[in-house]
Design goal:
111 residues, mainly alpha, Arc Repressor Mutant, subunit A, 4 helices, 50% helix
Length: 111
């Protein structure tokens, strides 16, 4: 099973939602706006690199732009393995959340 850390899950979902417009700045902005929490640049790029190395994302360089002083943006795309990892993580979370009501803690089922 290819389970994800919480930040990996958040980053993969952001890349998925942004589609062709998923690059570092837009990914960070999307995450910050969606969950109303600030993230450092490293908090986004470290998981992006890790997810790319694991084959859950691919990346490519866009065309240089005058706004960036002639530098190119690195765009990210989710792979089928990334989609499968999101599904597996959601299934695991759904199973763990099953029966949770938010009221008082139940008695332990362990003996």
């Amino acid at each position: 099973m290819n389970l994800l850390t919480r930040i990996e899950e958040i980053v993969l979902l952001a890349v998925y939602q942004l589609g062709d417009n998923a690059y570092g700045v837009t990914i960070r902005q999307y995450i910050e706006q969606t969950i109303n929490q600030k993230f450092s640049v490293g908090a986004i790029y470290v998981p992006l690199d890790r997810l790319t190395r694991r084959g859950l994302l691919t990346s490519y360089m866009g065309e240089p732009t005058p706004e960036r002083g002639g530098r190119s943006k690195r765009y990210y795309l989710i792979t089928s393995e990334g989609i499968n990892a999101l599904r597996a993580t959601k299934e695991m979370q759904d199973a763990l959340w099953l029966g949770f009501s938010g009221s008082e803690a139940p008695q332990s089922g362990l003996s």
